[in-house]
Structures are given as structure tokens and as C-alpha cells.
Amino acid sequence: MKMTPITVALGATLIFLSVALANVLIPSVVFRPPPTPNTRPYTAQELEGREVYVKNGCVYCHSQDTRPMDWGEGSGFAAQPGDYAYDSPHLVGSARNGPDLFREGGYHPDDWHWAHFENPRYTRPQSFMPSYSYIKGVERRNLIAYLQCLGGRMGTSRANQQRELKVNLVKYYEKGAGENVAYLNSTLPNDWLAMPNPEPVSRGSVERGRVLYVAYCAGCHGEHGDGRGPAKTYLNPPPMDFTLVQASGARPQEPTSGYHYDYRKNEVSAITNGAIYYVVLYGIPGSAMPQFKGQLPSEKIWDVGNYVGWAFMGWKMEPDSGRIEELAKLNKISKKDRKKPPA
Amino acid sequence: MSDTTYPAARVSFWERLDRPDSAALFGLISGAVWFAIGVIYGLTMSNELTTPDIFAGIPQLVFSRLRPAHVNMMLFGFLSTAFYGAWYFIVPRLCKTPLRSNRAANILLILWNLTIAVGTIALMNGDTQGKEYTEYPWYIDWPVEILLIVNAVIIFQTIAARVEPKLYVSLWYIGGSVIWIALMYCIGSVMWHPFTTYLGSDGHTHILWSNNASSLPAGVSNFQRTGAVTGLDDAVWNWFYGHNVFGLYITTGGIAITYYLVPKLTRRPLYSHLMSLIGFWAIALLYTNTGQHHLLQAPIPNWLKIVSIIGSISLFIPVFAFSTNLFMTMRGQWGQMLENTPLRFVLTGAFFYLAASFQGTIQSFMAVNRFVHFTQWTVAHAHLALLGAFGFIASGATLYMVPQIVRKPIWSRNFADVQYWLMLVGINGFFWALTAAGLAQASAWVTLGEQVTKAYPVVKPYFFLRSAFGGMIVVGVWMQLINVIQTVRQPAPRKDMDRYLSLSDLHEFAAPAGILDDPPVR
Questions:
Q1: What is the dihedral of CA B79, B82, B85, B88, to 10 degrees?
Q2: Domain locations in chain A?
Q3: Given phi > 0 = left and psi -120 to 50 = alpha, else beta, which region is B222?
Q4: What does the pLDDT look like over B364-384, one tens digit per residue?
Q5: Which of B154, B231, B166, B249 is nearest to B517 (CA)?
Q6: Cβ contact B465:B440 at 8 Å
């Protein structure tokens, strides 16, 4: 083959244009997915928030492309072609230094986002996201409005529910710790309030719980459990002050001779181990307490509850008598006695 | 080789621009400077991932704004200018005629450097189109597009005026690259849509001038942002460009330089003309189809995904044609790699190119892609290709061509050698640290079913390693800049120059016969 400048120039151009025709022009003609029912046009404020998102390059660490196999928030609702119908430019992204945000709307309340932009380590101590404290005022509000609309109509509805639930949470917070805890307990299933703790408050459990507390909780609840973490300033209602719960009259009636302590029920404070478990699992919608169900397995949630109880609410340390010892003890009791278990 | 010595008499600015090879020198030095600035950006970003609050509260230095600045600076600052310089060196020599013209090429490079500098500042100030590799705003896109066309004109004018009738393979690649980048840049940047528009409730399309919520009416529809189309199509357009900018611009440009330098430096004829032909037409036809493999995890049509996977697999043809051709040229000559520093750079780059292409094909398999997509593996791959392969080739070209142009020996061979080893160890450590980080992330997300947030502490140690190895690269790159500047600043051309210049007097061995000779001086 004789290569001349004409061959090179013409061949290169024609090949490129024909491939561009197949790869770009034909898709833009035949690939016109209609918006999915869950998708809606952006409001003006959300579009302005999207501008902030684009300007600050959020797309370089946060994809907007939930895959069927993903385990993050919004998993189970994989991205459909029509979900992107109103997007310009696309923000599909190519990296996940941070979580996928395609279904982010409503998983956190507005004030959580506000604190998170101030410094991500306030709400998420392990995060390496930069601080966006320079996005201020209207810009940050617009950006949060945009984040809350991700996930389409479902995301918007979650975000609105968060805003509605916040009203009562603030009201009861202002009434004081005792009433606040009573109200929060009333929102939990009774079975969970009375749920026996399968994990004794042992030295090991508390130590593991401490590590988890530092990694997940300390940003809001503070290193002393007093709810004075760096994020407190931005959150309404503020994070729970566990020490206040212990000191308040919120404790249930105690027997005259000191504590009647049953480690399986932890009846020392008004906040039972089961309640902590439930709240860590599902969060408190409306408040900045997020759900950890996708992140912490069962045993670790009991551990962190044990640490919070032991360190901040006066729960007693128990010997690490595992399930085996417990069964051995049960075995020694005669069959007749076993039918009614000890109090 | 120009034997002209310049009198000490004052020469005007325009005369300086007309000096033979002045554009090549300008391009190569610009490349070295951009390289040195770009790695500082990279190191800064790397440190921000390990210690996120070092520049907290400074919008221009936030990670997510430095990233497009870094990527575009490396792409359009470093690699582009270094390649233009190398092309302006190669094309006249292969055509045996002066560049048409050095003045135009010099002015182009001045404007190009200005454009990239302004573009970098724009990106750091948040003025971006928001699509990877096409981030430059429209007022940068248009100058870039015009300069790309001017560059194509300069190259083709020189080729048209050639004395040597035969067209060496490097010229095909250079000719293709300058056309392809000019065509794809306007596709990728959606340049015909410079303003953000929306369809108002009155049924007319309006331009969004100001950037605040009150300027947008309530029922906004058909929102189309600057430099973008609407919907998932935008991603298709974006990634068609996003991969071809490497495949049909950086890759082909780097291959052209390798095809010139390896026969030239080793004095061995190129192994096979047929393989060059296969490689060139295969890269044009097959590499062009790979773009959509960036969207294998997004809901684009399946046939597009399949086209891209087939394109990625058949990439083996041009890659192996090129590598075989090159390595067969080197047969029996590998010892020269130890003695000749520029050759070592170029061949190391060729090895990295083979590795990166091989990895790229493997990555496009669905089973691999669903595992490693979105992780740091991708970042490792990108650096293997752009820094490992084409960064090394550009460095080799700079270290060979700058002494040739100024007719002075390289200022310090030791500097060049130390630079080589720093960059080699740096990119290897960098690559493996990030690959390990990517595999760790992928294992957490896919195998263990953990959320992305759980992998934060997992990748942190690898990020520290990346900073450490990245620091080695930074030192190496700055040594290159010092070496180049000192080479140019040396007092006068030396009489015994040819002893220092590697192999410049052995043209008759180069192949095809005589084609690598230097052009006559105008």
C-alpha cells in the first residue's frame, strides 16, 4: 500500500467520521429513553444547586449510577436510562471515592448536609472528603436542595418526610432530656425496648465499641458522650447527650437497695440496649442520626451500644461469660425449675 | 542538523521565531515546564486525600477543582506541547524540508500556552463544563479548536512541501493525530452549544446569563448546559471523546515519536513496513470504538457496550503490531538501552504502553469491569498509560531533541539517569499502590457487600504510599526541567559536539535508507 498525504488525511477523516456516526450520532437518534415515572424536571433552586455541584467537581468522587449489585443507599433501585432525562451535563461519574449519590435524596436531613459541607469529618470522622466551608448561604442551601432531589420523586418524598418528622423531634428536645427520651422511646417498637442484650457488657465488647464509637459517632455525640461533637452547632435537634440521660430523672424506678442490675435488660437507664440497637440500625428520621444498617453488622451495633451505656450512662461491666457458660449454668438447674426461668 | 551559528548581533523578535527548530525547542521546553507544574498539582491532590484539611476553605485548591486542572494540564499542557515540539522536530527531518513555518508554529505555541494557562485558572475558579476531559469552558474551547486546526495546517503544509518522496510511518501517525484531535475536540465539547439555555414557559429558548436561582423561571424544561447535550446521550458523547483523546491523539502522537526515535537512536532499520501499515489502519478503525467501555456500568444500550468491548479486544491488533515491530527492530540491540538514556526512556514508555493497553483490554471485559469500575484501579491505569507510557516517551524525546536543537551536550547525564530511575520506581510504586487500593475497594464493595463509606480507612494506607511514590516522580520531573534549562543555558556550542550527541552522525544506518536525515537549512 502506498501511503501518500492524501491517503492518510482522507482515510483518517473518513474512518473517524464513520465510527463517530455509529458510536455517537446513531445513539443520539435511536437512544431517546422517556423519563421514568420516578423522574421529574428540576426546580429552579435544584438547578442552581446542580450548578454548584458541577462547579465544585463533586462528580470526580461521587458517581450517579446505582448498579443492581450495589449495597449502598438506594440499592435495589438501579439506574434506568430514563432517570437521566433532564440531566445536562450528565453526572454519571467514573470514581467512587465517596458513596454513589444517585438515590441520596432524603437519607439525611438538611442540617446533616449543612454540617457535612462545613467539614465532612464532623459527621463522618473517617471521611477524606475536602471541607466545602467556602460554599456559603444561598449556594449551600441550593446545593442541599439538589442533593435532596436525587432519587427523583422518591428522594423528594423521603426528604419531605424528614422535614415533617423534625418538627416533633425539636419540640420534645426542648422539653428536656427526660421527656425527650420518653418521646423517642414511644416511637420505637415495644419489643425492641425490652429486647434482651445478647452481648454482655464485657471488657472486649466495650473496647470494640469504643473503636466504633470513635469512627462513627464521636463527630456528633462528642468524645465524652455529651452530644458536644463538632457537628453539634449545625444540628437541630442537637445530638443526644448521654450523660444528661444518666443524670436526669429519666431512669426507671430503682429498688431501694441500689441497682437491680440484669445485664440482659440493662435496666439502669431509660435508654435500653435494645433501643440503642434499633436506633443505630434505622436512625432517627428527622434528626441527623443516620441509619447504619448497611454499614455495621449486628454484633458491632450491640458493641457500640454497650460502650455508650458503659462509658456514658453508668452500665456495669459484666464478666465475659459467653453463651456457652450461660447454657452450662442453665444445664445445672433441674428440669422442673427450668420451665420458669430465674427473674 | 543545522550548522548555522548565530552572530552576536541583535536579531529581532520575528527573526528569532524564524530560526530553524525554534518551534520544536519552544514546544519541548513548554512541555517540560507544564510537566513540572502538573506534577505539583498531582502531589497536592494526593496529599489532600490523606490529610484533607490542609487547604480547607480555599476554593481554588480544593481536591475536586485541582483534579480537572491537573488532568487537563497534563493532557493539553504537558503532553500536547511536548508532542508538538517533537513533531516540529520530526516532520522537517522526515520531509527533508523546513517547517512551514517556524514562525507560525512559534506563535501557535505562545497562544496555546496562554490558552491552557487561562483554562487552568478558569477550572480552579470553578468555571467548568463538568464533563471529564472536556472541562474547559467554551471561551477556552474555541481558541483550542482553532489552534488545533492551525497545527494540522502547519503539519500538512510541511508534508506537502516535502523533498523526500516516501512518507515514513511517523508522518502517518502525526498526520492522523492532528486531524483526529481537531475533529473529536468539537464533538466532545459540544462546541456548537456555548451557552446554557432553557425552554421558558413562553415556548422560547432563553439563555441563562446569571447564576442565581431567581433568574430561572418556575417551569423550566429542556435545560441544556453549556457544552453538553441533555440526558444520558451526554455521557455517550463525552466518553466517545474521552477515550479517543488518548487513543487517537496522545497514543498515536507518542507512537509517531517512538517510530522515529528508536530506529534513529539504534541505527537499525524498522523491522516491518507491513506491520506499520496494519498498526496504523487498525488503530484508526478499532481504537475509535472503545469509548463506551467507560459506560459499561451505566444503562446505555447493550449494543453500544458490545461495540466498545469488541473494539477494546481488537485493540490487540494495533498494539501488538506496534510492539512487535518495535521490539523486533531492537533485536540484538537491547544493550543500547543501558547506554543511551533517551532510548531507555522511549523503550520503557513502549513497554508501559503495551502493559497499559493489555490492562485496558482486560478491564473492558464485563466480569472485570463490574469489579474494578469506580475504584482507584482506574486511576492507576490512567497514570500507567499517560505518565508511564507517554510521559516517558515525551521525556525521552525532550532529552534527545533539546541537545540536538541547541547543539550542546546534555547538561548532566547523571541527572537524566537519576530522573529515569526516580520516575520508574515512582510510577511502579504509584501504580501498584493504587491497583492494590482499587482491589481492596472492589473486594469490599462487590465481594463483601460493604458500602462505599466502609472502604475509607481501607484505602488510606495506599494513599500514603501514593504520595510517597508520587513525590519521587515530582523530584524526577523537576530534575528534567533543570536539566533542559541548563542544557540550553550552557555558554556555546561545543566543537567536539558529536562525541556527546548520541549517534547523530550515523544516518546511513537509519531506515528506510536515508529517510531520517536532517533537513537542509533554508
A1: -40
A2: 44-162, 175-213+242-327
A3: left
A4: 999 999 999 999 999 999 999
A5: B166
A6: no
Are B318 and B283 contacting, i.e. CB atoms less than 8 angstroms apart? yes
Nearest chain B Cα distance for residue A8, angstroms: 6
By the CB < 8 Å criterion, does B297 face chain A? Answer: yes
Distance from CA of B113 to the nearest CA of A (A): 24
Residues B133/B479, Cβ–Cβ less than 8 Å: no
The ranges of chain A with pLDDT < 70 are 246-269, 320-327, 329-331, 333-343
DSSP B411-441: S-HHHHHHHHHHHHHHHHHHHHHHHHHHHHH
Length of chain B counted residue by residue: 522
Question: What is the residue-wise DSSP string for B438-489?
Answer: HHHHHIIIIIS---GGGGHHHHHHHHHHHHHHHHHHHHHHHHHHHHHHHHHH
| Domain boundaries A44-162, CATH class | mainly alpha
Assigned CATH topology for domain A175-213+242-327: Cytochrome Bc1 Complex; Chain D, domain 2 (1.10.760)
Nearest to B452 among A85, A100, A130 (CB): A100
The CATH 1.20.210.10 portion of chain B extends over 14-191+227-509
Element (H, E) at B157: helix B138-160
Query: Is A88–B180 a contact, with Cβ atoms under 8 angstroms apart?
Result: no
Of B53, B235, B453, nearest to A131 by CB-CB distance is B53
| Minimum-distance CB partner of B284 among A16, A61, A90 | A16
- Mean of all residue pLDDT scores within chain B: 89
Are A44-162 and A175-213+242-327 the same fold in CATH?
yes
Q: B299: nearest CA in chain A?
A: A81
pLDDT digits (tens, 9 = 90+) for A14-23: 999 999 999 9
Architecture of domain B14-191+227-509: Up-down Bundle (1.20)
3-state secondary structure (DSSP) of residue A55: helix
Q: B232, A92: Cβ pair inside 8 Å?
A: yes
